[in-house]
Amino acid sequence: MADAVLFEFLHTEMVAELWAPDPDPGSGGKKKSLSVLEGLGFRVGQALGERLCCTSSSRLPRETLAFREEVDALRFLCKDLWAAMFQKHMDGLRTNHQGTYVLQDNSFPLLIAMGSGPQYLEEAPKFLAFTCGLLCGALHTLGFQSLVTASVASLPACKFQVVIQKS
Amino acid sequence: MADAVLFEFLHTEMVAELWAPDPDPGSGGKKKSLSVLEGLGFRVGQALGERLCCTSSSRLPRETLAFREEVDALRFLCKDLWAAMFQKHMDGLRTNHQGTYVLQDNSFPLLIAMGSGPQYLEEAPKFLAFTCGLLCGALHTLGFQSLVTASVASLPACKFQVVIQKS
């Protein structure tokens, strides 16, 4: 379906736009661009998390979006959220049972458009920042504060590390 | 399907990000933001036009993306492209048979999130710029140079005017 590629095309162009040479050297450059992408992702994640919880019959009712167990929220990201975004499930979910989770996607769609050689590895962070923010935003909607980072060892596979912040 | 709303959420947040107060008064402000949105739309439209032409069995083969008649290209935008983006068809297509076309959407999805009172009318252009660029980019892929503008008389209805540029 084209509406799935529409998101991917828009994401690609948004990254390209933010990485275009900035005529103003004082504007913060790449660091600021990553933070803009994360912020966009966070707000989209909040909205998407709310929409998915409200439309999925197996989810909790509107007034209690929060999941009781954090592992249920992580499973929701790996299944429902990933299916809505990429029409598939995350390939793996591991945890140390102390609030840290590693979500593995063996073929992350937003990295597939890049080349797969090791020379592209340093380009990967800009294609991951939006999704890190999105996971964090969805978790926020579900009642969990988190830090989300991503790492790539071999393109187009990647891992998202989620650390739940205890209040 | 959530992947349709994913595009709409991302579009909304992208507009909000570009409209956020800019600390640099010399950066061009709203005019520059509209032009950034149009440029993003143009590139997404090019990619989407190519994808749709190549995957639709009723379309021309890969090596001849261009439509012979401009009205066929406009019909393609109103049906195939609109269905891929918004899961519906455009509500109307009129032409003066001299290269000017008016495409009418009685309930444009990217305007629905706004309020519908007349006080919101002046906010509308920022929600239309991306799609103007997108239509222009798709037409470019199909072999036509064009100027695309949009107007709103009563939210959430809008009209896109396409003027084909003769070479």
Question: Gist?
Answer:
The structure is a homodimer of 167-residue chains. Chain A is of the alpha+beta class and 167 residues long.
Radius of gyration of CA atoms of chain A, rounded to a whole number:
16 Å
Structure summary, number of beta strands of chain A: 4
Counted by DSSP, the helix tally of chain A is 5
Oligomeric state as shown: homodimer
Structural class of chain A: alpha+beta
Please give the alpha-carbon distance between the first and last residues of chain A. 41 Å
pLDDT < 50 stretches of chain A: none
Order of helices and strands of chain A: HHHEEHHEE
Strand content of chain A: 5-15%
Q: Percent range for helical residues of chain A? A: 40-55%
The strands making up the biggest β-sheet of chain A line up spatially as: 1-2-4-3
Biggest interface: A-B, 30 and 29 residues
User: What shape does the CA trace of chain A take?
Assistant: globular
**What's the main sheet of chain A like?**
4 strands, antiparallel
What's the average pLDDT of chain A?
87
Task: Tell me about this structure.
Two copies of one chain form a homodimer. Chain A is globular. Helices cover 47% and strands 15% of the residues of chain A. Chain A is built from five helices and four strands, in the order αααββααββ. At the A-B interface, α1 and α2 of A face α1 and α2 of B.
Key features?
homodimer, 167 residues, alpha+beta, 4-stranded antiparallel β-sheet, 5 helices, 47% helix
Summarize the helices and strands and which ones pair or pack.
Two copies of one chain form a homodimer.
Chain A (H helix, E strand, L loop, with lengths): L1 H18 L9 H27 L14 H17 L5 E4 L4 E6 L3 H4 L16 H13 L3 E7 L6 E8 L2
Antiparallel strand pairs in A: 1-2, 2-4, 3-4
